[in-house]
Each structure stands twice: as structure tokens, then as C-alpha cells.
Design a protein that fits this description.
Elements (H helix, E strand, L loop, with lengths): L6 E4 L5 E5 L7 H4 L5 H4 L1 E5 L16 H12 L5 E6 L1 H12 L4 E7 L7 H9 L3 H7 L2 H13 L5 H4 L5 H6 L5 H13 L3 H8 L5 E6 L7 H8 L5 E6 L6 H4 L1 H9 L8 H18 L2
Helix pairs in contact: 3-4, 4-11, 7-10
Amino acid sequence: MTPILHTWVAGTLGPLLVFFPGLGGTTRYFEKHLGCLPKSHHVLIVDPLGFGDSPKPWTRYTVDRHMAELHQTLNGKGVFTLVGHSMGALLALAYAARHPEQVERLVLLSIPYFGAPDEAMRFFRTGPVLYRLYLTNMALAALICIVTRRIFAGLVPYFQPDLPREISADIVKHTWRSFTSSFWEVVCHYDAGRDADALAGRIPVLCLHGDHDQSAPLEGALKLARGRPNWQMRILAGVDHHPLLHASEVCQQAIARPIGLCLSEGEKRRAAYYSDWISQLTGS
């Protein structure tokens, strides 16, 4: 069996918080943006299989394979709040559906939900140039992964100026196999709606999502949350795909506080407005 995944730990007292980074992310995505959380909580950040300092086997990086490795790492840790960003939010939802006895609540940052693989590819094909060239062509994505790791690792921070340098530098800590397979198997093909149904109201879920997110459409997250009474949406005005980096205090407070206390009346009205807007677009 593959060795246990790499983790970063902070704090020794209080409830356990477990964090999963997104596609290409590592523990350093969260480390310096937790604020006072390590003073009141025990924090555990996990590098998913194939990323950061975790093992990178030659395998299909399916949701089930990610789940097996994550469970090997988290089994026996007791009950915790699970926080995921982007692809990590999908993995967090999948983990909670499979191991609800371990998860007290979910906080999902910028969860990408498209409803079907063809819808995911349609979104990326019509998105920014990087997505059209990179994420929709697996062969090209593999080539770029190889080249960036071997040649341009030192230049990556200059191509990601909106991210802290230590985070953008870590983006190359994967293999072409782990990146392309995880993107295809988890982001595009994973049925998040099925696992959201499987939670069956047992676990409260809070979604934090920027209304300027160009990587994970807000309307997708709203569709996923709609009609599920255990889900709440907190829409962050003017925030992109990285709410923890660009609205740090808001996210830290939301992660630390009981989910029922997270939303102000204004935020509830904003979420209702966007939900009505999506209903009009979809005719549902």
C-alpha cells in the first residue's frame, strides 16, 4: 500500500480542523492563511495523493483512489470539521459521504460543480485562454506539466502574480499523471450531486464562494446547494477563486464558528437573489 499522505500539523488543543487543498495545491496553500485558528484548534492539512510531498504513484487518480489514501491518513483521528478548496472541496464532500461518522461539518471553498462531464469541458473550452489550451487538452496538459516541472519551476510565481510566491512555486509539485488524471476523474467526472444527496442532512455544509470566480462558476455551487436544507451559501462580493487568500478573516471566522451563525441577513438575501437568478436561467 502507498505510504500515508504528507501532512502539516499546527496547534494541539481544541477541535480538529482538516484541510484539503485544490488541484495543484499543497499544504502551503493554507499554512500562512489560518490566522488564529491554530490557537483555538488542532489543525491538520493534507497533501492529496499525487501532489505536494505526498506519494505520486503511476495510477488512475480516481475519487475512490483518493478516498482510500485519505482514509488511511485520517482514520483514527476522531471527529473533525473538514475544509476543502476547489478540487479539495470535491474530495471533502466525497469523504464526508463515505465516512460521515468522522465528519462533524463541511466548509467548501470555491467548489467546482458542472453537473456532467460535457458541461465541465464546455465551461473550460469557453473560459480564459489558459483553460482552453491547457485543461481541455490532456496531451498538451501532460507536456506542460513535464516542462514546467523541469524547466520553468522558478518562473511559475511570475505567471501567478495573484498568489503568494510560496504557493505558486508549489503548483509544480505533481506529475503529469497525477494532475491530468485528477482533473479528469475528480473535477470533470465526479458526481458531486450524488454524494450531496448521500449526506441526507446529517452533516451541515457551508459553501464560501466568490462572485468573481472564473475557475468554479458560482451558478454551479448554487445549483448544488439548492434544495438541500443542510447546505448554506455564503457569497463573497468581489472575491475570485481564492477566498481564503483574498477574504482571509471572513473565511477564518466562518471555519471557526458554528455554521448556523455564519450568515448575516444581508448574506442570506444575496444567496436567495442568486438562487432565484439561477432558477430563472434554468427554468427550474
